[in-house]
Amino acid sequence: MASTITAATLTVTITEAVTLNGYDQGSSNSLTISSVNEVFKRIVTCPASNVTVIASFNSNVYGAAGALDVEDVKYIRITNKDDTNALELGVIGAATNYMVELGAGESHVLGSPDTLMLAEADTDPSFGTMTDLSSIEVDPGSNAIDVELFIASG
Asked: Concatenated DSSP letters for the chain?
């Protein structure tokens, strides 16, 4: 069976708009990602006081239930859709992880999860060998929080 999906180009634009003392101090940056033929988009309510795995990655899509192919993914965006509460976002690699807080309405953007990250427990980056992303988790604390996930693959 041949696919009827035609690959397309994803355009991501980040715009900051602010005028200070009558002068535009904003910026706009665009990224184009070619040959996108798959998207994974979901809004999930992460229950209060529970860690929720919102995406998992594997070397192939049949290697784990619901996994995205780590070599095919090209772009990842996670957005906190809550209008008040922050959440903690966990980015999990093969043997390490890093966490960031996403305030209400904030997003965290990542590129390809293939050799994406290296977490260290000090303040002196080694700039060593990066590892694959294995999953993305959300801890909403004591509030149920909606999270939007958008992933583009090719």
From this structure: ----PPPEEEEEEEEE--EETTEE--EEEEEEEEEE-EEEEEEEEE-TT--EEEEEEESSTTSSTT-EETTTEEEEEEEE--SS--EEEEEEESS-EEEEEE-TT-EEEE--STT-B---SSSS------B-EEEEEEE-TTS-EEEEEEEEE-
